[in-house]
Write a structure and sequence with these properties.
Number of helices of chain A: 4
CATH architecture of one domain in chain B: Up-down Bundle
Helix content of chain B: 55-70%
CATH topology of one domain in chain B: Ferritin
Number of strands of chain A: 0
Strand content of chain A: under 5%
Low-confidence stretches of chain A: 1-5
CATH topology of chain A: Ferritin
Order of helices and strands of chain B: HHHHHH
Largest sheet of chain B: none
CATH class of one domain in chain B: Mainly Alpha
Shape of chain B: elongated
Distance between the termini of chain A: 13 Å
Number of helices of chain B: 6
CATH architecture of chain A: Up-down Bundle
Radius of gyration of chain B: 24 Å
Number of strands of chain B: 0
Strand content of chain B: under 5%
Distance between the termini of chain B: 77 Å
Oligomer: heterodimer
Low-confidence stretches of chain B: none
């Protein structure tokens, strides 16, 4: 990642886009899950929705119009059962973590802290869905 | 010829109204090592903390804490953290060794999973507190490690 090369607004809009993609994706994943995993997917969908609203408010406060969600998102692979739905959830959280990593690179303690804490939330969700932790959430592992 | 020119330099400078300090305006190479920058000191402190975490995990593994396989996996990720942090540290030649060894020896007492969980949480919080003191790329590394530590705490039951 080209650290420091992204403006605050760009980083916030990228995080918002990732949240919107996660909201869409969880709706797809949740349809193929049941029991405790369906409940977890619903909780994560709610969490992303709330964070999306928070981000939109923060972006508006910067005097910028928050980017609208797309009507449809292309999924990275076909989702047709619980296994692929679980993999999609982990994929979505990885994307959210990467997006917030961009916010950590901008100047300002407030923004860096917000991004870092959001990374912790999405990394924990990803670990739940993947069933394993990662050494470097959001970064290339090399 | 060269010796004669060098000997004539002070006279030439005086003629031009210059002092030697005007000519050599950069860091004085004879003044000793420059002080380490704040972000380097921060990185050294984080490396020391990561070493302490590894020592804590190693003590838990050596003491047979459960689940052994899970702890070994988390320990391996902390070793990856340490390697990447050390790779980010660039010290001028002759600098003192970067990070002191952990000041406590966790092997002297039995380390519990609850202690590991608390240490992971504390580490994640400490890294976030340091984000504003370092350049963007290092802040991203700290944030990523903090996120990993947060997942470790959750994996340990927290």
């Amino acid at each position: 990642m080209a650290a420091g090369s992204v403006s605050l607004v760009q980083a916030m809009q990228a995080a918002l886009a990732a949240e919107n993609a996660a909201i869409f994706g969880y709706a797809v994943a949740g349809a193929h899950l049941s029991g405790a995993r369906k409940t977890a997917a619903e909780q994560d969908w709610t969490g992303h929705t709330e964070t999306r609203d928070t981000l939109a408010t923060m972006i508006s406060a910067l005097g910028v119009t928050p980017a609208a969600a797309q009507a449809y998102y292309r999924l990275p692979f076909a989702v047709h059962n619980a296994t692929t739905a679980t993999a999609l959830a982990a994929y979505l959280e990885d994307g959210v973590t990467r997006a917030y990593l961009g916010l950590v690179a901008v100047s300002g303690e407030k923004w860096r802290t917000f991004g870092a804490l959001a990374m912790q939330t999405s990394a924990q969700r990803a670990a739940f869905w993947r069933g394993a932790t990662q050494a470097f959430p959001g970064l290339q592992s090399s | 010829m060269l010796a004669a020119s060098a000997a004539a330099l002070p006279a030439l400078l005086a003629t031009a109204g210059c002092r030697s300090s005007d000519v050599f305006a950069g860091p004085d190479p004879l003044a000793g090592r420059p002080p380490l920058s704040p972000d380097v000191i921060t990185l050294q402190e984080v490396i020391a903390a990561e070493r302490a975490m590894i020592a804590l995990y190693q003590a838990a593994v050596d003491a047979g804490a459960r689940p052994a396989r899970g702890l070994a996996g988390l320990l391996a990720q902390h070793q990856q953290h340490l390697s990447r942090l050390q790779a980010s540290l660039v010290l001028p030649p002759g600098s003192a060794s970067a990070s002191p060894s952990p000041s406590v020896s966790p092997s002297s007492s039995r380390v519990t999973v609850a202690q590991l969980r608390a240490a992971e949480r504390a580490s994640a919080a400490d890294l976030v507190r340091r984000l504003d003191r370092v350049p963007p790329a290092l802040a991203q590394l700290f944030a990523s490690i903090a996120a990993s530590d947060a997942t470790h705490a959750a994996a340990l039951g927290g």
